[in-house]
Amino acid sequence: MTDAAAEKIEKLRNEIRRHEHLYYVLDKPEISDAQYDALMNELKRLEPAHPELITPDSPTQRVGGKPAEGFKKVRHSRPMLSLDNAYSEEEMADWDRRVRELARDLPVEYTAELKLDGLSVALQYQPEETGGARLAAGLTRGDGQIGEDVTSNIRTIRSVPLSIGADKLKKTGLPPSIEVRGECVMPAAAFERLNREREREGLPPAVNPRNAAAGTLRTLEPSIVANRRLVLYAYFLLVNGEYWPQGQAATLDALTAMGFRVNPHRGRMTSIDGMMQFIEKAESERATLGYEIDGVVFKVDAQATQQRLGYTGRAPRWAIAYKFTAQQAITQMEDIMITVGRSGKLTPTAMLRPVFVGGVTVSRATLHNADFIERMGLKIGDWVKVERGGDVIPKVAEVVEDAEHPRGTRKFSFPSVCPECGNAVVREEGEADWRCVNADCPAKLRESLLHFGSRGVMNIEGLGEAAVAQLLERGLVKSVADLYSLTEEQLVDLERFAEKSARTLLAEIRNSKKAGLSRVLMGLGIRFVGERTAELLAAEFGSIDAIMAASREELERVEEVGPRISEAIEDFFARPANRALVQALKDAGVEMTAEKKQRSAELAGLTFVLTGTLPNLTRDQAKQKIEAAGGKVAGSVSKKTSYVVAGEEAGSKLDKARELKILVLDEARLLALLEARPPAQ
Ligand code: IVH
Q: What is residue 197's predicted lDDT score, i.e. its pLDDT?
């Protein structure tokens, strides 16, 4: 190797990197595409003569080897959470109030960013010899805990630096092991181009840029990905698995300084007025941005405040997504279809003449239940206003009637028998839904299997509608537990099941045994037990046996479990068939234990006195909650009392508290204090 050649190659690379940064990150090219191509061709010509110089971060190496066996699943360094949503100024004001309440004396300032409608990814950088950092892995969000390793595809995204120079790290004071998180989006132009191509090839169009971006990132051919022109906007920086302590605005600055693309539409504000102004501006610019957004994200800026606010199960309390209001369109309802869910619930769906609303083509919309149809007086053939907000399922908002849109003529009557099994359907007193109560209704089993295998539950990839339909048709599974005794021979026999996909599905099923107690709880399909409740139950009881043995009172000790949920859980486990199912899953080796949450000692050392009648909690419930958080409850007020919790008709204890200048809380404040405890993550 000659030094001169090495020097020339390195110089050329830096020149190309600079132009890539100008073009893909800053949107300010200094040279024409042809000039850029010429530089790149020169580098491609020089490199092969010095193969020892072809490092993975060379601009020629974006499109490299492809993953041979699909994508590896990798656990995130820290869960990738989602955001709570707000839809109105009122909800924003509520959130702001709550943030301030919980932040107490800590500063509250917000950083506003656009809510980009793409998919979030995590980029892991590792130290390299030069003191800089090199892109080591790029992961999709997956279910938030475990993502897919799509490094070879991420590398093709030009706004993702393959390396970060030591000088840049030094300037920002960052170590070379960092993780950058951001949103990967497909710009409108790339989306349109993709759909023109698909049309030429006789393929159905991609529904929206977000789906197209997600599909692209999971393509097994990096050269295709390189062609799709995805863009990555960075918004988070993690050091040692923790958010960078300097706060959100400084994070965005540091990311910019390191060469990442950061969305230029951002702001800082302290008031609700400031937030609403930012929202209004974003909404007015929305159509001309060149990429899709579905709202605005507000993040509390200071890390100390973020930490005090903490997390709920799935989202930080220190951030919120304001979602733009629904978009509407008018179309004709051609029919009403009834589907049977896993609980036997009959759901009516409007079959619509396809219409474009808020960036997607909609051909179905939910009609909720029989009452909804009746209240709207819906007839088949009616013209309806369809509404879509963010990723919410489209809704029928109203019936339209004018000269151009005459009323439909066919009356719809809700079926009195299950469309799948023909058994009579029932509607219980006080319930809105009609249900098929036939325990052997094939629809229930089908839907239960689909639910069990779905992402976010047992996450069994390949257990989609087609596979489930065939498994049922051949009588291979009669309950979700039967999945675990399927064999390769049985699967290869199914239509469109090659040996490889049979083996993959079996491996996925096997893997799901380790999904964990909370996932199994969700998978069982107990009414009202969703992700968060399942996680709380798992953390509290630690095993399925303990949950099955728990009394309603014990169940209700779990945060967020009230009488409605405890009753559903008790009902579920009281049924012999469900107990047998649990046993069968256990026998199949499905893990049904979890680490028990350590009692939080957050309120340790604090003494509470309760007085008067609280609006929702009984005295006992309040006491249990305080004790669960490590606090003490005393009978009388003294100088040692930390807080007095007062409800209606509080008596002398309240007077005494005032006299001793002891802080008085109402029920809401008590709950806020309890919730401010950091989550068990
Ligand atoms: S912050 C824990 N910032 O919105 C914080 N998310 O609804 C979660 N998103 O999964 C991410 N733009 O995919 C954040 N500026 C932004 C965002 C953003 C879009 C997406 C992201 C996230 C989803 C949550």
A: 84
Q: 247 burial class (0-12, 13-18, 19+ CB within 10 angstroms)? A: buried
| Mean predicted confidence (pLDDT) in 266-294 | 93
- pLDDT mean over 29-56: 86
Which entry of 73, 115, 625, 640 is annotated as an active-site residue?
115
Cα(521) to centroid(ligand 1), Å: 27
Q: Rounded distance, CA 450 to CA 90, Å?
A: 38
**String of DSSP letters for 295-334:** EEEEEE--HHHHHHH-B-SSSBTTEEEEEPPPEEEEEEEE
Spatial neighbors of 34 by CB under 8 A, at least 6 apart, are none
CA-to-CA distance for 382 and 384, rounded, in angstroms?
Answer: 6
Strand 327-340, strand 383-388: pairing = antiparallel
| Cα–Cα distance for residue pair 99/93, rounded to 1 Å | 10
Most confident of 12-16, 260-264, 531-535, 666-670: 260-264
The residue type at 140: T
Ramachandran assignment for 102, one of left (phi > 0), alpha (psi -120 to 50 degrees), beta (any other)? alpha
State the pLDDT at residue 435. Answer: 93
Q: Is the pLDDT of residue 607 over 70?
A: yes
| Token pair of 648 as six digits | 């209606």
The C-alpha angle 457, 459, 460, rounded to 5 degrees, equals 130
* Nearest atom (ligand 1) to Cα of 85: 7
Please, what is the average pLDDT of the chain?
A: 89
> To test ligand 1's pocket by mutation, which of 80, 143, 297 has the most ligand atoms within 8 angstroms of CB?
297
The ligand 1 atom at the shortest distance from the C-alpha of residue 118 is 13
Mention every residue, 6+ apart, whose C-beta is less than 8 A from residue 652. Answer: none
Spell out a b/e string for 97-132, using b for 16 or more CB atoms within 10 Å of the CB, else e: ebbeebbeeeebbbbbbbbbbbbbbbbbbebbeeeb
Give the residue from 113, 119, 162 showing the smallest Cα distance to 263: 113
Q: Are 426 and 435 in contact (CB under 8 A)?
A: yes
- CB of 533 closer than 6 A to ligand 1? no
**656 pLDDT exceeds 70?**
yes
Q: What is the pLDDT of residue 149?
A: 94
Distance, in Å, from the CA atom of 532 to the CA atom of 230, rounded to the nearest integer, reads 33
Phi, psi dihedral angles at 487 (to 5 degrees): -120, 165
Section 94-101 average pLDDT = 96
Query: Of the ranges 4-18, 61-75, 318-332, 354-368, which one carries the lowest mean pLDDT score?
Result: 61-75
Rounded CA separation 172/163 (Å): 15
Buried b (16+ CB within 10 A) or exposed e, 587-614: ebebbbebeebeebebbeebbbbbbbeb
Distances from the Cα of 588 to the Cα of 149, 509, 523, 582, 584, angstroms? 29, 11, 15, 10, 6
Residue 672 near residue 595 (C-beta atoms within 8 A): no
Q: Specify the residue with its C-alpha closest to ligand 1, atom 21.
A: 120
Taking 90 as the threshold, does the pLDDT of residue 329 lie above it?
Answer: no
pLDDT band per the 50, 70, 90 thresholds, residue 259: very high
Strands 435-436 and 425-426: antiparallel
